[in-house]
Amino acid sequence: MELVPWRLLREPTTRRKEMEDLWKRLFGEVDFPRPFGEEWLPAVDISETKDKLVIKAEMPGLDPKDVDVSISADVLTIKGEKKKEKEAKDEHYHCVETCSGSFQRSFRLPHTVQTGKIDAIFDKGVLKITLPKTEEAEKKEVKIKVK
After folding, report:
1. Which of 14, 42, 91, 141 has the most CB atoms less than 10 A away?
2. 129: domain CATH number?
3. Is 104 left (phi over 0), alpha (psi -120 to 50) or beta?
4. What is the dihedral of CA 52, 56, 62, 63, to 10 degrees?
5. Which tens digits make up the pLDDT trace of 31-40?
């Protein structure tokens, strides 16, 4: 017998998909409301080097003027809105997979970041935020003494 981890939110999603597939086979294409709503959030990568933290957020189709980066105390917030394209009168969609709407992502920063020297660059749909570390944040090697 094989042990499989139970995932609270994954199980209903699988059952829901099976039910939607059954309804589609019986009654054709029918849209059901999602249980938790479909919130659009940009995918984010956070990396660290010796002297900085880097946050990269993928925001395809967004204009930099629709994105806001702010800092309050030790929380960095990225928020914005991806506007939905207007539908032409003679255009009828059969499938819509693109997301639109407002989003907000917040990240608690370590106290070892120089908040006054944060740099944000938007290039090819990717927002790159560079957060320089303070000097005391850099790792220092500690010698071990032998008695």
Report:
1. 42
2. 2.60.40.790
3. beta
4. 20
5. 444 444 456 7
Sheet holding 52-58, edge to edge: 44-48, 52-58, 126-132, 119-123
Residue 93: both structure tokens together? 């969609």
Task: Specify if 68 maps to a domain.
Answer: yes
Regarding whether 119 and 103 lie in a shared domain, the answer is: yes
- Asked whether 17 and 34 are in contact (CB, 8 A), the reply is no
**Does residue 106 contact residue 80 with C-beta atoms inside 8 Å?**
no
**Per the domain annotation, does 26 fall within a domain?**
yes
Q: Total structural domains in the chain?
A: 2
CA distance 125 to 22: 38
Q: What pTM, to 2 d.p., does this model score?
A: 0.63
Which one, of 37, 42, 38, lies nearest residue 105 by Cα?
A: 42
Percent of the chain with pLDDT over 90: 27
pLDDT tens digits, one per residue of 75-112: 899 999 887 777 667 777 777 777 778 899 999 888 77
Name the maximum alpha-carbon separation found in the chain.
Answer: 85
- Are 74 and 104 members of one domain? yes
**Residue type at position 132:** P
